[in-house]
Amino acid sequence: MQVYNDPTDLPEKPPIFRKGFPTVILVLTGAIVAVSLIQFNVSPELEDWMFSVGAIAGGPGFENVFRPWGDFAPYVLHTFLHGGSFHLLLNMAMLIAIGPIIAQALGKSLYASLLFLAFFAVCAIGGGLAQMLWYAIEAQDGIAIGASSAISGLLPAVGYIRDGYKGAWSMSVPWILINIVLAFLGGDIGIMSIAWAAHLGGLVAGFSFPVFLSLSKAGR
Question: What are the chain's domains?
Answer without folding.
Answer: 18-214 (1.20.1540.10)
